[in-house]
Each structure stands twice: as structure tokens, then as C-alpha cells.
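Thread: "does anyone have the structure for this chain?"

Original post by V.I.:
We have the sequence but no experimental structure in hand. Need at least a predicted one for the grant figures.
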Amino acid sequence: MTSSLSRDDVARLLAEPSAQVRATIAEKVAGQLDATSLTRDELALAQDIVQIMARDAATLVREALAANLKASSNLPRDVALHLARDIDSVAMPILEYSEVLADEDLIRLVRTVPESKQAAIARRETLSEAVTDALVETDNRTVVRTVVANKGARIREETLHRVVDRYGADEDIQEPLVQRGRLPVTVTERLVAMVSDRLKDYLVTHHEMSADSASELVLRARERATVNIVKPFTDENALEKLVAQLGRNGRLSPSLILRALCMGDMPFFEYAMAQLAGVPVVNARILIHDPGMQGFKPLYDRARLPAKLFPAFRTAVMVAVQTDFRGADYDRESYSRTMLERILTQCDDLRWDDAEYLLRKLMDLAPPTMHAA
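Reply from O.Q.:
Generated one for you, C-alpha cells below.
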């Protein structure tokens, strides 16, 4: 350790009237505090100097100290707490970066410091569930948004529900909340009813949710994009991107594809099969629409869809391929009724939740007289 840190020099340095000189010394001391070459006595001496400088009347000195000790593992805890309660320019580096502050320290600070300092804590690289609980309990919009946007913050399911209760309709908080790395299914499905179509797409492609909810989201969006079952999809780039994103995130499930097909969304089905089989969509269309149905089975096998669901898919494809819309008075509802009736009466191997979903859809499409009966 250099002679500039001797006890005699400490007295001289503290007597120096220039704050700039003391700030320079503060930087030097801070830089040496974590040096591996320090003896135990030298470390204790350096920490004594830090203790004194943390109470320097000059803001410049305390700022230099905090900026250079924010990542120090040898910063005394009581000094860190003292600096954390200082003015913002001194406190912020310690609040955001110092690892010597324990969870109980952070929670106590959250409950006693103003919003700017709470937000600094919310930006820490990692946050425990206990600390994020305290931050969300502030009910401060800026702080809550900072917490949910922090990828390193662990947040309990109950706390996420509190955020949704309080800020679910706030678009500025919706986006970072939706884009968190992982959301519980219960939270995802609550957000579905609140967020924009763009964020709904993100929810369905990046987060877990029930098969029914995922299907409803995708199919509802596709129904808005497709005017009727015979008019070609007008924005194939958007459809291709949606299917590719579902595929990348493991959300292009057999249930979703079958339900889309049964509801008359042939373009989605074509792109989904092309994605899973790894072939151009033009090739997939040719194989799907082969009048003799010779091409569909090889495509289905290449897509690695469940063998037991093949009869259901085959029946749905046959209805789609063999129905002559040009000479028939078919709209989307009548088409879907025909498709669902045939699937439900001819296929015994449907999963119970798929069958229940399709049956519910069939009831939704039933004429009013049937509902009355």
C-alpha cells in the first residue's frame, strides 16, 4: 500500500482545504479498497479513511467516493447505508449497484426513501421477490414500471396479480409486463383481455396459456384478417411471420392447427404445415389440395404431427378440398358448421379438450332455433 494512505498523510489530506484534492484521494482510496495485495491492517486503514470521507462536507468528495465504491465488496455496510441516504447524486450508484446492501437493507430503504431512490433500487441487476414485493407495494407507477421492466427482478405470482389489478389498463406498464421472460398462466390469461392486438400476439407466442385461450387469441386475430373463407389472405407476410414465431417458441401445437383448420382458416393451416414440415408454402399447398389426397399423408408425417390425430386432419382437409364454394351459398359460419359436424361424428381419436372445444364452437355456430330447443 502506498505511503499516501499512512495515518500521518490522512491527517494532512483531511486538512487540505480543496475539495477537488480530497475527491481525488477518495477515488484513489476507493480504487485500492479491493486490492488483493492489502494486508488486514491496510484494509482496515483504508476502510477508516472511507468512513471519514463518507461524511465530508463537500458533495464532490462523497460523489467520487460513491461512484468508485459502488461495486466494492469491501465497502463497510454502514458506510453504504449512509451514502444510500445521501442526496441523489451520491446515493444513486450505491442504491443501484452495491452488493453489500442486504435485502433487509433494501426493503427498509424502499419504505423510507423518495421515488427517485426507489427507482434506483428497482434498476438493480438482480432483485429478490421480497424486495420486488416492497417496490410494488409503493404503488408508485414509475417504480412499478421499472420493476416489471427489470429482467433480473424475480416477482411472485401474487405480486404480478397486484400489478395487473392496479395497472393492467396502463399501456406504459402493459408492454414491459407482457415482455417479461416468463409469466404465470394465470397472469397471462388476465392480460389477454386488457392488452392491444400487438401485445396479444406476443402473449400467445411467448407465454404459457391454456390451449383454449391460445386458440381463441390466434383464431380471433385471423378472423379479423381474413374476410371470408374463399378470399385469399391479403397479408401473407404477416401470416408467415406469425406462424414462424409460433413455431420458434414451441406454440404451434397440433390442437391449435386442427382448431384453425376446423374453423375454416386454410391459409393458417397451409403455413403451419409448411413451417413444421420445413417445405415452401407453395409445396405444402400442392400436397394439401391434391384431389386424390395422396400428398397430404407424407406432408403430415414430415410435420411430425400425432398419428392418432391424422383421421381428424384428413377429414377436415377433405371437407375443405371437396367443398365447392363457387356453386354453394356458403359463408364462414355454415362452412365451419359443416366442418365441425363431420369431424365430431367421424373421428373418435380427438383429445377430450379438443373435442370439447370443437363442440362448444359448433354450439356457438348453431342457428337460434337449435339454441332454443
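V.I.: this helps a lot. Confidence is low (pLDDT under 50) at residues 223-234, 367-373.
O.Q.: and The chain is about 65% helix and 0% strand.
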